[in-house]
Design a protein that fits this description.
It is built from eight helices and 23 strands. By secondary structure, the chain is α+β, with helices and mostly antiparallel strands.
Length: 433
């Protein structure tokens, strides 16, 4: 108490009087959170009253520290702000075992700003200004929206470049761009909205390589995935062998990508322009889950990246189109492929899923980095959104293996992938249905 260094500022706001339970109180809470998110971020401290003259905390006014209280705050923020900013909670009980004390609400700087309060069918935009709250003018609101869209475009360009770089690395290690009967190439890319920073030098590369070559990022496996590493431009590159089936690029800013060969399953050929094989959807879903968790862990733990992330998945056929010497110049170099799944009855071939074949398709989604890195329900939810956006190009509404509520659908998998994923889901406390 009475510490001048603890004075309220642009990134620090004390709230001694408790928020009322009515709509006025909910709007006030939303205003305080939005003011930080629309500025440089900061911490809202509930349970400390400040001196009005000096803005220095002078008294503790304990608040409730229960899961119910946290849920109420999250619900209030989600219901009263558009878009919903990310918030984290840190509790400081007044004594061990107490459910009373100080509650800190951390509000990171948001690239989704401006965040608006929804109040009586109108939108207002607060922002922290020193130790007070100001309201954005119309010109400032327009500027903030333009900045948001520019940043979104920048992230889209960045993720496309990262995806392309990973593909080029995989092709360079293979020594061939188009294999005669090559498995489709799946790339999974991630770009954090708030970049991190990891120094690329001999020590850091050695540390990352030692960790990664002993790690098991592929879900449900027991053996390490990667066996070799090398240095790229502002990144560390991992691969399993030569030619590689899996390549991962971990960038210094927390971005990253996987490029992986997806197994093919024989299916009946519907016409001469499509390949008589389909990309195995069990493998695709496992690779997306594994890559997202692996890339997010790198971003959060090594580089300090934060906030949400832009996600991209791309499936590209690399099965050669055999047109012979009469192939016309404008004919495609590759044949379109379907999605396929192992039949759940004893058969030598799989079954086609979806209705459409493509040579190339792309899906996008967004998710919180920490949810992906934690590897639980949030990871499954994000993977479901991302693979759904990809599979819909092929006429399949969503993956049968995972759902948007974050659960695993056991009968959507074929063996041996079903057993592998079930084992992982149990360890990660992901529900199975």
């Amino acid at each position: 108490m009475d510490n001048p260094d603890a004075r309220e500022d642009e990134d620090l706001d004390y709230k001694g009087p408790h928020y009322r339970a009515d709509q006025v109180g909910r709007t006030e809470l939303a205003k305080d959170v939005a003011a930080l998110a629309n500025g440089i971020g900061g911490v809202l401290v509930l349970g400390l009253a400040e001196d009005r003259q000096t803005s220095i905390p002078k008294a503790v006014t304990p608040v409730e520290l229960t899961d119910k209280k946290v849920r109420q705050i999250r619900q209030t923020v989600a219901s009263n702000l558009r878009p919903t900013p990310r918030i984290d909670f840190f509790a400081k009980p007044d004594q061990p075992g107490s459910v009373q004390g100080i509650l800190l609400i951390a509000v990171p700087r948001s690239l989704d700003a401006p965040h608006a309060i929804v109040d009586e069918n109108r939108l207002t935009y607060p922002r922290r200004n020193g130790s007070t709250t100001a309201w954005l003018t119309e010109a400032e609101i327009a500027t903030a929206y333009r900045r948001r869209f520019e940043q979104l475009a920048d992230r889209t360009d960045r993720i496309a470049r990262i995806d392309h770089d990973a593909e080029e690395t995989a092709e360079r290690l293979e020594g061939s761009v188009f294999l005669e009967a090559g498995d489709p190439l799946l790339t999974v890319s991630l770009v954090p909205d708030i970049p991190g920073d990891m120094v690329i030098d001999h020590t850091s590369v050695q540390r990352v390589s030692t960790q990664e070559l002993a790690a098991v990022p592929l879900l449900g496996r027991t053996a390490p995935t990667f066996c070799s590493s090398m240095v790229g431009a502002r990144r560390v590159v991992l691969f399993d062998n030569r030619p590689p089936r899996y390549v991962a690029e971990l960038h210094s800013d927390g971005s990253g990508a996987w490029a992986a060969r997806t197994p093919l399953i024989g299916i009946s050929q519907d016409d001469s322009s499509t390949w008589p094989y389909g990309a195995d959807i069990d493998s695709i879903v496992t690779l997306v889950l594994s890559a997202l968790r692996h890339l997010a862990k790198h971003a959060v733990t090594r580089t300090g990246a934060a906030g949400t992330a832009t996600l991209r998945v791309r499936l590209e056929s690399q099965t050669a189109f055999r047109g012979g010497p009469m192939r016309l110049p404008n004919q495609p170099r590759t044949r379109a492929i379907h999605l396929a799944h192992e039949a759940l009855v004893p058969q030598e071939t799989g079954v086609q899923v979806g209705t459409t074949a493509h040579r190339r398709a792309i899906g996008y989604a967004h998710a919180l980095l920490n949810d992906l890195a934690d590897g639980g329900i949030g990871l499954v939810q994000a993977a479901s959104l991302l693979t759904s956006d990809l599979f819909q190009h092929y006429g399949l509404a969503e993956p049968p293996q995972i759902s948007r509520d974050g659960s695993i659908t056991a009968n959507g998998w074929s063996e041996p992938e079903r057993t592998r994923i079930s084992t992982w889901a149990q360890q990660a406390s992901v529900p199975m249905t």
